[in-house]
Amino acid sequence: MSAAPVPVTSDVDDPSIRAPLVLGRQNFATVSDSVSTIVERKAPKTWFLLLGLALSILAILGGSLVDLVWKGVGRWGNNHPVGWAWDITGFVFWIGIGHAGTLISAILFLFRQKWRTSINRAAEAMTIFAVMAAGIYPAFHVGRVWLLYWVFPFPNQMSVWPNFKSPLLWDVFAVSTYATVSILFWFVGLVPDLATLRDRATTRTRQIVFGIFALGWRGSHRHWLNYERAYMILAGLSTPLVLSVHTIVSFDFAVSVMPGWHTTIFPPYFVAGAVFSGFAMVLTLMIIVRKAFGLEHLLTKRHLENMCKIILATGSMVGYAYAMEFFIAWYSGNDYERYAFVNRAFGPYKWAYWTMVSCNVICPQLFWFKKIRTSIPAIFVISIFVNIGMWFERFVIIVTSLHRDFIPSSWGYFRPTLIDISTFFGTFGLFLTMFLLFLKFLPSIAISEVKGVMPAADPHHHDDRHEAHEGLTGGTGNEDHHESDPEAVHA
Amino acid sequence: MNRGRFLFPKWSNHAATVVALLVLGGGTSAGAALSYYGTQKHLEVGYQPTQPVDYSHKLHAGELGMDCRYCHSTVERSAFAAVPPTQTCMNCHARVKTDSVKLLPVRESWANDTPIKWVRVHNLPDYVYFDHSAHLAAGVGCSTCHGRVDQMPKVTQTQPLTMGWCLECHRDPGPNLRKPDEITKMDWVASTEQAANHEGKAANGRKVAPPTHCSGCHR
Predict the structure, then answer these.
(1) Does ipTM top 0.85?
(2) Residue A490's pLDDT is what?
(3) Where are the domains of chain B?
(4) Angle at A396 between CA A392 and CA A398, to 5 degrees
(5) Cross-chain Cβ contact B162/A476 below 8 Å
(6) Which tens digits make up the pLDDT trace of B43-52?
(7) Is the pLDDT of residue B199 over 90?
(8) pLDDT cut 70: percent of chain B above it
(9) Alpha-carbon distance B26 to B23, whole Å?
(10) Are A127 and A241 in contact (CB under 8 A)?
(11) Cα–chain center distance at A13
(12) How far is B54 from chain A (nearest CA, A)?
């Protein structure tokens, strides 16, 4: 590698050359600067504009939920025979979105995929906000949201105890564990960067606030050693969660005896779909963020291209699962199962089914072409199509399986109410508000980790470019440390 | 060493202890306050409201030996065990103790044709369906839920009336089932074989299967 010329762009076709993860004449100080100034500068007008928009959408969510609680769950359109509709669709949609964050932060970390460093922070934040948005649906579907704590097993005067045979209870544990571990993982990763912000802070308030959240970080060897260990342990804890959370969400359906739901392919199919949709959302957001905050040198085309490849892989898995569901329905010889699937593709919801297939199966196949997966407008459009397709996937699974009950007299057709639509629309307000606040008040790219993948962090200083080593001593205590012990930065 | 780097000052070493103590102390007092002030009075054993008439069940049901059903006449036929109208009191008190001071509110009620505002002691929430007649038909007697009313000068709640308490019996009704003629017997105690009756057989041999599912009571 040392002899090879180092390219200045990330469009490298020669596999013997490893495309750089940070572009341009960058050193540790400029990386710190380009991420920290987003937090330190006054936010641009567009940010305020977007925040205002997000807050108004959030207000729609608030209004819908007040209406729902005040008048009852009947304000949503789900009713016999479609007892689960947009609410659970929205729940699974958002939970799925979160999975990219966990995959990037945990699995890609354990597999030493260094390109994760530029996207993991924002993707983890997205995970947390997506879980928050997801939680709204089951929480409000119980009807009396103030009694939500009944979902947990605790001794009480009513002798009420949750049903441990129900996948809905497993969901409670899966999702709450997922939320807890994701928040912890995110926070632990933030600590060195919060210390950087603290050290750069010019006002006393910022110093104290960042100082408290930086947990007294001084960047000593012992700190880095403990930090790396904690990060590794949390990555280990999160890894099974990537698989388990959506597996258990799929059990909500697979454990029942509904034709169209009762299939063993659901867990892997749901997990692949979740990662698929999550990466699509990361792409949608990061394409905007890198442009808006001028982070193209840290979030390079190589990052985007890698994510496109993951979308291509998981999209193909999802397509395979759709085909396999049909095959098994035919192969099972079960009339009801066959009927459920034929009805899914050619029944009254065929419009939803074929929207799903076009968005999820056909669209991502375009990423086989390098031209498309390196064209930012194309990636952006396809990522949005994938998001739409994955929402439709959950809608198709839930609604088409339910609307034709075993008895033809109880067949029906689900139509969303205004409150259904405004609740779902409103959760985007919650998600966007949180994400915009995150972008403004926290480092949206993991500064310390990105430094670890720069040539200057190479302990043998193989990189011939002198500029890579410039400015190493000009930063804060954190940065000094990187030079002396780069192994600890990114073990 | 850097521009005003903020690290935790020395006193903050104690911050965790202080916060823990505050949380523990605050939590304990908040819990105690909530359980003292926040508990529903109808879930409280020992709830003993003052009634508009100083009526003694001890005298009427205990010493005089009146049957419960003389006043609470609908208990065997209806969901609700009727609280007697003033007429029931006057059946006797038109002639007995006609000049008693204690009975003044009763005579006023009678003369003015206005009901006495008895204060309800045993009260279940509105979302609970409860039927007295079903319980009596199965062989559950008065004293099982209401205690020794014949010894109460002033009626007191003796059982918690919580859902858990209801379910205790619904899950194993046998030991509480009596013969039909013992329903109002105040000093009834389960015989040894009755106490071991976990099959839920009523006195007539019929199997009693009270609901334990949600919509049994929350209809």
Answers:
(1) no
(2) 43
(3) 43-83+118-217
(4) 115
(5) no
(6) 888 999 999 9
(7) no
(8) 98
(9) 5
(10) no
(11) 29
(12) 33
Check residue A475 and give its pLDDT. Answer: 42
C-alpha span between A132 and A91 (Å, rounded): 10
Say how many C-beta atoms besides its own lie within 10 A of residue A50's C-beta. 19
Whole-number Å distance between alpha carbons of A127 and A145? 23
In the prediction, which pLDDT does A460 show? 65
Which amino acid belongs to residue B95? R
Domains of chain A are 28-489 (1.20.1630.10)
- Does the CB of A473 have a partner CB in chain B at under 8 Å? no
Q: Rounded to an integer, what distance in angstroms lies between the CA atom of residue A148 and that of residue A146? A: 5
What element of type H or E holds A12? none
Residues B143-169 pLDDT 10s: 999 999 999 999 999 999 999 999 999
Interchain pair B5, A207: CB under 8 A: yes
Low-confidence ranges of chain A (pLDDT < 50): 1-5, 471-491
Tokens 């994760």: give the residue. A116
Q: Residue B116: its pLDDT value, please? A: 94
Is the CB of residue A143 less than 8 Å away from at least one CB of chain B? no
Q: Is the dihedral of CA B129, B133, B138, B144 positive or negative?
A: positive
Distance between CA atoms of residues A358 and A353, nearest Å: 9
Q: Which helix (H) or strand (E) element contains residue A481?
A: helix A477-484
Distances (CA, A) of B169 to A185, B198, B200, B207: 48, 11, 10, 14
pLDDT digits (tens, 9 = 90+) for A166-205: 999 999 999 999 999 999 999 999 999 999 999 888 888 8
Q: Are A475 and A28 in contact (CB under 8 A)?
A: yes
Partner B, chain A 186-225, Cβ-Cβ below 8 Å = 198-202, 204, 207-208, 210-212, 216, 218
- CA angle (B48 as vertex; B45, B51 as ends), nearest 5: 155
Q: HSE-up of A357 (CA within 13 Å, CB side)?
A: 13
Q: Which residues of B touch A40 (CB under 8 A)?
A: none
Residue A28's pLDDT is: 85
pTM of this structure: 0.85
Amino acid identity of residue A469, one-letter, is H
CB A439 within 8 A of CB A36: no
